[in-house]
Design goal:
This protein is α/β, with parallel strands linked by helices. It has a single domain (2-140), classed as Rossmann fold (3-Layer(aba) Sandwich), CATH 3.40.50. It has helices spanning 19-22, 27-41, 53-63, 82-91, 129-140, and strands spanning 2-7, 44-49, 69-73, 95-99, 121-124. The longest helix is centred in the first third of the chain and has 15 residues, at 27-41. It is globular and about 40 Å long. Bound molecules: 1,3,4-trihydroxy-5-OXO-cyclohexanecarboxylic acid. 1,3,4-trihydroxy-5-OXO-cyclohexanecarboxylic acid binds next to loops.
């Protein structure tokens, strides 16, 4: 199974950025831990980050026929991006939404996710463990047949 893990804007600053909210690990630390988990699960991982909405949309479009699952932390685009939502829908790839912080316990603008309804599910609030849980969920979820 091939898994594409996408990270949105400002996640390249993890470790420096509001560590009381996002923790002290860098994105590279998270990738390293996820690769250990991926090899335990026996899956291939591609791990990317972009600060640009269009680049994320392009990667989702190109994922069709290449990846079996997407795990995405769309960061701030979670709350604004209909383009990402449409790209996920168009790809037809089962996708898991992930967040380090518990977005529902924060500012009200973070309570809304534009992508949640087109994802299999959302994992939020467990820090870097959210990624591990999301990878496990993406690999093990029993998909319902499409109507
Ligand atoms: C985030 C939560 C978002 O609201 C925020 O804009 C981020 C990170 C998280 O992982 O907790 O950049 O996606």
């Amino acid at each position: 199974m091939r898994i594409l893990v996408l990270n949105g804007p400002n996640l390249n600053l993890l470790g420096l950025r509001e560590p009381h909210i996002y923790g002290e690990l860098t994105l590279q630390d998270i990738e390293r831990a996820l690769r250990v988990e991926a090899s335990r699960l026996g899956v291939d991982l591609d791990f990317r980050q972009s600060n640009h909405e269009g680049e994320l949309v392009g990667w989702i479009q190109e994922a069709r026929g290449v990846f079996d699952r997407i795990v995405i932390n769309a960061a701030a685009y979670t709350h604004t991006s209909i383009a990402l939502r449409d790209a996920i829908t168009a790809s037809g790839i089962p996708t898991v939404e992930v967040h380090l912080s518990n977005v529902h316990s924060r500012e009200s603008f973070r309570h809304q996710s534009m992508i949640a309804a087109v994802c299999i599910g959302q994992i939020a609030g467990f820090g870097s463990l959210s990624y591990t849980l999301a990878l496990e969920a993406a690999c093990n979820v029993k998909l319902k047949p499409k109507p």
